[in-house]
Structure formats: structure tokens, C-alpha cells
């Protein structure tokens, strides 16, 4: 699912919420986080975040690099890049310098893409659905 290049971008994945786990609260990590279960809370900061195909997050996600393969209900902010994989669902606002949305993904919200420090491109996409 994730190419070798992606693994290098994420560095060390030190925190994993497994498929049969539910975590409530805020996650902070200097390294990367992988969610294959359910997180009811925010990821306040991390180097990278991977949300697996069965992973669910009900809260905001903030990291340098983010890949979403499951479901997120909350705002997503990636300082470097954000990738939304096919079949994933995102219900909330997006903010990233680089954005990729796979065919078949569902996204409902607004998107702000900042290409430079002071230059911002805003895209209002209410209830946009890609299929």
C-alpha cells in the first residue's frame, strides 16, 4: 500500500493504534503515528500520520506528512503533503502545501493550499464527492 519512498518520508513509526483498539485523547509524537483502529481525539503534532484502510479518527489531525486510507471526521493539516487514498473518507477542512486525492475517495469540506509562506490558494468545495 505504501511505497518505499513513503516509508522514508515517515521515518520511525513509534506509535500504533491497532485494529482492535480504541484510544480516547490527544496524541503527540516527534516521530510517526499509525492508526488502524479508532481514535476519538486529536493528533496534535507528529512527523507523519498514516491512517490505515480500517482506521478511523474523530478529531483533528496535524502532522508534517499525512496519508489517509480510512475515515477522518475532523480538520486535517499537513505542513508538507497530504494524500487521500481511494475509498477513504474525509469530512472536514483540509490545509496542505501538496494535496493528492485518489479516485473514489470522499471529501466534504473546504481546502486551503498554501504554496508559499504568505501565498494561499483557497478552494471552497462544499460536499464535493469524487468517484
Task: Explain what this protein looks like in three dimensions.
The protein has 131 residues and is mainly beta. The chain has one domain (4-125). Helix content is 5%, strand content 56%. The protein contains 1 helix and 15 strands; from the N terminus they run αβββββββββββββββ. It has one helix at 4-10; strands spanning 13-17, 22-24, 27-28, 32-35, 38-40, 43-45, 48-51, 56-58, 61-68, 71-73, 76-84, 89-91, 94-101, 106-114, 120-125. The strands form 2 sheets. Strands 1, 2, 4, 5, 7, 8, 9, 10, 11, 12, 13, 14 and 15 form a 13-stranded mixed sheet that branches. A hairpin with a 5-residue loop joins strand 14 and strand 15 (120-125). The protein is globular and about 30 Å long. It starts with a helix and ends in a 6-residue tail after the last strand. Mean pLDDT is 86; it is low at 1-5 and 117-121.
Secondary-structure element order, as H and E? Answer: HEEEEEEEEEEEEEEE
How many structural units, i.e. domains?
A: 1
Q: How many DSSP H or I helices?
A: 1
Helix content: under 10%
Uncertain segments: 1-5, 117-121
Mean pLDDT rating:
86
Shape: globular
Termini Cα gap: 20 Å
- Main sheet summary: 13 strands, mixed
Tell me how many strands there are. 15
**Rg, alpha carbons:** 14 Å
Q: What amount of the residues lies in strands?
A: over 45%
What key phrases describe this protein's structure?
56% strand, 15 strands, 1 helix, mainly beta, globular, 13-stranded mixed β-sheet, two-stranded parallel ribbon, 131 residues, disordered N terminus
